[in-house]
Specification:
Blueprint lengths: L7 H22 L3 H21 L5 H27 L8 H22 L2
Helix pairs in contact: 1-2, 1-4, 2-3, 3-4
């Protein structure tokens, strides 16, 4: 049974996904559908994999889900940087970058500490 009470990474990735949805809607309203789709998928997948890791069948499965989450975070960072650098796309808020950095650090720490078990 799930117990997400006081689970900071579950909360942070869920809140981040909501912000990605908001930014994706901004892209969609500017008819930037391809970028919207890419960013939506990778940005919401971070939290989906963290969520799924909470029901991991083993420590190896737990680590694997978090590694996927880390890869999705890296991809999301790429798309956000492209949006920021492009003159054709609305600029993402710096808060998205800040939150993504925090999520990446926590995820990395969880992976490394889980490997020591």
């Amino acid at each position: 049974m799930r117990n997400d009470k006081d689970n900071i990474i579950v909360s942070k990735t869920f809140d981040f996904a909501l912000k990605i949805i908001d930014y994706s809607e901004k892209l969609r309203s500017n008819h930037k559908y391809e970028m919207c789709s890419q960013l939506f998928k990778s940005g919401t997948s971070i939290g989906a994999n963290v969520w799924e890791a909470q029901n991991a069948e083993s420590n190896a499965d737990f680590i694997h889900k978090f590694k996927i989450s880390a890869k999705e975070a890296d991809e999301t960072n790429y798309w956000l940087k492209l949006c920021k650098a492009s003159k054709h796309l609305p600029n993402p808020d710096e808060e998205l970058f800040s939150e993504l950095t925090s999520i990446t650090r926590i995820t990395s720490k969880i992976i490394s500490s889980s490997k020591r078990r």
